Amino acid sequence: MQQIIPAITLEIAVLILGLLMLFAEAFSKTADRSHMARYAIAVLLALIGFSFFTTPPPANPAPGSMWDFYAVDATAMFFKRIALATTAIVLVMALEYRSVLSKFIPGTEEGRGTGEFYSLPVFICAGLMFMASAVDFILIFVALELVTIGFYVLVAYMRKHAQSLEAGVKYLILGALSTGFLVYGITWIFGLSGHTHLDKVRATLVAGFAAGGPLVGNEHALLFGIMLVLIALGFKIAAAPFQLWVPDVYQGAPTPVTAFLSVGSKAAGFIVLVRVLEVFLAVPAVRGKVIAVLVLLAILTLLYGNLTAMPQDNLKRLFAYSSIAHAGYLLIACAALSADPFGAKEAISFYLAGYLVMTLLSFLVLITVARQSRGDDIRHFAGLGKRNPFLAFAMTVAIASLAGIPLTAGFLGKFLVFKSAVAAGQYALIAVGILGVGAGFYYYIKVIAAMYWDEPTDKTEITVGPLTRLFVGGLVALVFVLGIWPAPILNQLSERPISAVAHK
Amino acid sequence: MTVLNFIVLLPILNAIAIACGAPARKSALLSAWTQLALTIVAMVGYRGGFAYGSTWAVAPEWGLNLTFGVDGLALVMLLLTAIVTVAAVWVTPKIEKRENLFYACVLLISGGAAGAFASVDMFFFYAFHELALIPTFLLIGIWGQGERQVAAWKITIYLAVGSMILLVGLAKLYLAFPEGARTFDMIEMTKARHLIPAAEQGGIYIWLLVGFGVLISLFPFHSWAAPAYAAAPTPAAMLHAGVLKKFGLYGLIRIAVPMLPEGAKVWMNLLLVLLVANILYIGLVTIAQKKLDWMLGYSSVMHMGYIFLGIAAGNAIGITGASLLMLGHGLSIAALFAMCGYLRQTSPSLAFTSLGGIAKKAPFLGYAFGMAAFASIGLPGFANFASEAMVFFGAFKAGPAATLDFSSIQIATVCGLWGVVISAVYMLRAYRQIFQGEPQANVATFKDPACSVKWSVILLLAALMVGGLWPKSMLNFIQPSVEALIGK
């Protein structure tokens, strides 16, 4: 394959796309902005194609260059593609959602004022892509903020809708708090190691805490810093006990934003979590305690997410709680990270890829159905099997995958997670995980029961636009392809890094 | 593409076609008969070892491939699947609501079972079985009767959790092989079984036993079975009790017995206690039932105990008997559920007290039910007799010979033999109350079933008698495979 494009070009292209969209929003004469989203979808999909032609980083980068904080390896490229694909699908959802949106924003004409709703996800996408490559605490922080600030606006986008505003305020306050934790934690780690580059931090800490090293005796300081960072990331990935914002924000935010939050924000959190854990777990002096914290987080998250999802009857809220549960499964793999480094990383990456596909699929169906049934409770899905068999089947596939039924992407992800937990000997986590799967079957299949067992209350047929139909069909196919033939994804993850990360 | 690929693909593709709007009953019948014909072709052409292999790479670096291939044992299970599928589709009465979805679900269950039995790869062996989970949920929930929704939830969650436990067990087994020798290919795993450290086998075996045990309704994980079968529409009950439940037993024979002999020793006494509870305790529960469908559900749980006994014996004759009993039990319970379903359509209640004297009104049903009941008890002339005899001989032989002290498995065998008496008690009592005596008022208009039901029951009974009068026809397939599996 010809490698001609520097990887950073991708991020730059996405940023330029976002800026152009802002200009278009400001100067375009027509009220309808939907064409902006269509162009953006095309560009983002094209960029996924271009991402296969990126050049490797230089073998010996000059000190002080970009490569001090920016790395390009297989995992980074994989997550960049995930970010691009997610954003494209979120824009499809936004198009589907625009009639609901324009009801809740000021303006008299249909479509007026929706431009930012299409351009902000593009900026968030750039943040996610930077984060995939970030190997320095400063870039991690900046990228994370680019993502989070975009979400602050998007969550509260429906300015005439009280729930959306409430969600926005909650997300803003708790988000800002977690940012504070992150910066403070980074400060402590910087104070101990004198570096912000992750590899240098690791090298300094490992040497410093070795027997007779200069840092021996400062374990508590390091642990304090680590805990602060973990708390901040706990907010981002919605791990219990830092999950309190999730249900209200997910339910209140515009549905495409909810989907983006549950996929993009979670993926971002886990990329960063894996990167920093690789540093923390390398220090033998604190390894045991960090693993213990991760196990505890995973158990709490699994129990909380799964058990609270069971009584929900609003579908968005149900997905909110279930997304907490999925963070729990991912944390199982995080806890296995030091015992089974390759397997656990593979499990996290694959789980995230599968999670993305099935979550976006379920939200795409949710938006289409909710708009035409005027509500997003489970009862609005009653009899969907009769009203629109295609959407009902797509939702069934998404649900089957979320619940973890074999031959779907979600099952393979769960299998990899459990496999790495077995390899790490984490049987307490396995037991809680199995309980969680059992609970998950209950609340997920509730949706299938509503769609097929119940009679529809509203017998009008539900129509699906061509673009949505195309993406729903594609995602259904992808759920099965990932579940039956994961080789392409696994090859992307296990292929040799495009080049070694700088300063190895 | 081999004939085996078609056997697996046919029901699945047909299910998709029916879901998309093909004429439901006609396509389903055509698919089921073709599946049976192809299976017989495959059996006729079988020449030993693993045949009809085909493989597609999925994740070669883990040793994970979509590999199909069958030995004699798997072929017999495929035959069971095909026969029961034909009968299940054939007996189905007119479906009033959403006929296409109904037949698609039935065929998916059949396709899942066929895929599992035809898989050589452990991962897909597991995955195909789960294909039946959602269709079962829909079948019971939409077309079932009685407390169908409760039963549907219960079976789905129970089996899902059981499968998850099983999955952990399979992952443990996979990781027990040293790095480099790890594969999901069950043939390769069996060949390399000496690489599994003896000390780890017990820890793996118990996960597999519990995981498979939930799917098989091993005591005390049996409570999903009877309510689900009582609530399920007839074809779903036939396929689930007749075929799908055999997946767990087949898995134990294919995976746990050959690969984990040391693990089996560790948990032998526990397994014996549980299987005796399956036979005696569930047997007594069965006697206490007052409705035909619940009684049949419990009887199918009870008979799993015999098959477990054969597996616990671990020798060629015991496992061969267990395998043949899987066939015999599958056919006989399917026949009983088929007739039970017909009774349900025509009679307001299945309680024994509200039925009586049906044999006078419906002589065919009287004969056929009697034969199926005899088969289920284990009377000579049916496959169940031959196989139960082998199971008991095998289990008794598994203990030390020529001492006067019985070992634990011999004691279990002695206890298990009483199960035959218990079976006779409940089956004959049910037969007397339903079919004999003077016809009660509410069965006055009762008639023999239509041709489709008659012939599908005849098909099942004929297969049972072939297995019983000429067991060699099946043992020629089963025995060499079992001997190859356990390495004798």
How would you portray this structure in words?
- The complex is a heterodimer of chains A (504) and B (488).
- Chain A contains 19 helices and two strands.
- In chain A, 73% of the residues lie in helices and 1% in strands.
- With 504 residues, chain A is an all-alpha fold.
- Chain A has one domain.
- The model of chain A is unreliable at 496-504 (pLDDT under 50).
- By secondary structure, chain B is mainly alpha-helical.
- Chain B is built from 22 helices and two strands.
- In chain B, strands 1-2 form a two-stranded antiparallel ribbon.
- In chain B, helix 14 packs antiparallel against helix 15, helix 15 (292-313) runs antiparallel to helix 16 and helix 19 (383-398) packs parallel to helix 21 (451-469).
- The longest helix of chain B is centred in the C-terminal third of the chain and has 31 residues, at 316-346.
- Classes of the chains: A mainly alpha (504), B mainly alpha (488).
- Chain A binds chain B through residues 385-386, 393, 396, 400, 403-407, 411, 415, 418-419, 422-423, 430, 433-435, 437-438, 441-442, 445, 448-449, 452-453, 484-487, 490, 494, and chain B through 19, 57-61, 66, 98, 101, 123, 126-128, 130-131, 133-134, 137-138, 141-142, 149, 152-153, 156-157, 160-161, 164-165, 167-168, 171-172, 174-175.
Low-confidence stretches of chain A: 496-504
Whole-number radius of gyration of chain A?
22 Å
- Provide the domain count of chain A: 1
Proportion of helical residues of chain B:
over 70%
Instruction: List the chains of the largest interface with their residue counts.
Output: A-B, 35 and 36 residues
Strand content of chain B: under 5%
- Mean pLDDT of chain B equals 89
SS field, number of helical segments of chain A: 19
Query: Could you tell me the number of beta strands of chain A?
Result: 2
Order of helices and strands of chain B: HHEEHHHHHHHHHHHHHHHHHHHH
Distance between the termini of chain A: 26 Å
* Helix content estimate of chain A: over 70%
Please state the structural category of chain A. mainly alpha
How many beta-strand segments of chain B? 2
